[in-house]
């Protein structure tokens, strides 16, 4: 959408000549839907940023297109607004409405003007502001997706702890579904812990895994193989009767990998394999 130079000049002059009034009224209208979640000073700062982005489109050397080569600064300002509001938990509608609100402000100013070009200029402004609002909405969506992806990665790391049970023995207690993304996190954390601790035995406990299918078994086997390449032997614990039956029915082969019913049994196996003498169920 190209904006002719004369319309841009008139709109810029209107906004410049009523700057304080525009900013004040813009902030008042925008605050209605925010219900006090931003201070007046913070909201005014955000409004000023959008106001500057709008003036940048009207007074720049380009043709008034946000997507054009001269719209970079305006796009950057709107993108930063979207990221900021996404982090603070505002909705995409609230974020876009901050931009759209200027149309109501300018409409109020235009009602007192008598120039023949008022209606045409307002239509031009409306189209430009709509473009800015839609860009803000899209930028918000991308920012929100990035935030969700980061949070998901953090949750995966928190839900997959690698704990040291004994000198030379670490364990990975798995809880919930083991998909490809989580399996990668499990493998990376386990291998890093093996490097950090120099452990010779790793226990992969699947007590908290609700079901084991072919895909889950493949993820576990890949983790075991990776650990072996690091010089550590793996023991799989938490093999309940239901899981044992499923593994047999699916024809899944764990080969020479040690499997135990409980984490305690796996720990005893690891300690004995490492040469620790056990008496009455406790290490000597």
What would your notes on this structure say?
The chain is 62% helix and 11% strand. It has 284 residues and is an alpha/beta fold. The strands form 2 sheets. It has a 5-stranded mixed sheet, sandwiched between helices. A two-stranded antiparallel sheet has the order 6-7. The longest helix is centred in the middle third of the chain and has 41 residues, at 118-158. The protein is rod-shaped, with a radius of gyration of 31 Å.
Question: TL;DR of this structure?
Answer:
By secondary structure, this protein is of the alpha/beta class.
Distinctive features:
284 residues; 7 strands; alpha/beta; five-stranded mixed sheet; two-stranded antiparallel sheet; 62% helix
Given the structure, what is the number of helices? 10
* N/C terminus separation: 81 Å
Q: What is the strand arrangement across the widest sheet?
A: 1-2-3-4-5
Look at the helices and sheets and give the structural class: alpha/beta
Give the overall shape, derived from the CA principal axes.
rod-shaped
Provide the gyration radius in Å: 31 Å
Binned, the helix content reads: 55-70%
**Sequence stretches where pLDDT stays below 50 over 5 or more residues:** none
Largest sheet: 5 strands, mixed
Elements, N to C (H/E): HHHHHHEEHEHEHEHEE
Q: Percent of residues in beta strands?
A: 5-15%
The residue-averaged pLDDT reads: 85
How many runs of DSSP E, i.e. beta strands? 7
């Amino acid at each position: 959408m190209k904006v002719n130079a004369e319309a841009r000049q008139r709109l810029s002059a209107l906004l410049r000549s009523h700057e304080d009034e525009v900013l004040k009224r813009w902030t008042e209208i925008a605050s209605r839907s925010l219900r006090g979640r931003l201070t007046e000073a913070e909201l005014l700062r955000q409004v000023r940023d959008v106001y500057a982005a709008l003036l940048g489109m009207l007074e720049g050397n380009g043709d008034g297109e946000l997507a054009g080569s001269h719209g970079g600064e305006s796009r950057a300002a709107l993108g930063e607004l979207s990221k900021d509001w996404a982090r603070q938990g505002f909705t995409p509608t609230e974020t876009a409405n901050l931009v759209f609100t200027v149309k109501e402000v300018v409409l109020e100013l235009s009602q007192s003007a008598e120039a023949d070009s008022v209606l045409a200029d307002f239509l031009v402004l409306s189209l430009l502001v709509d473009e800015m609002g839609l860009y803000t909405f899209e930028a918000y969506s991308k920012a929100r997706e990035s935030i969700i992806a980061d949070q998901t990665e953090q949750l995966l790391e928190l839900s997959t702890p690698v704990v040291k049970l004994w000198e030379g023995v670490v364990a990975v207690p798995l809880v919930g579904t083991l998909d490809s993304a989580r399996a990668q996190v499990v493998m990376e954390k386990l291998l890093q812990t093996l490097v950090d601790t120099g452990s010779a035995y790793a226990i992969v406990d699947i007590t908290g895994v609700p079901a084991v299918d072919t895909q889950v078994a493949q993820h576990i086997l890949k983790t075991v193989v990776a650990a072996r390449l690091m010089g550590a032997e793996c023991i799989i614990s938490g093999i309940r009767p239901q899981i044992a039956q499923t593994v047999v029915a699916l024809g899944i082969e764990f080969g020479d990998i040690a499997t135990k019913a409980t984490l305690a049994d796996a720990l005893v196996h690891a300690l004995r394999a490492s040469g620790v003498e056990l008496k009455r169920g406790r290490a000597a």
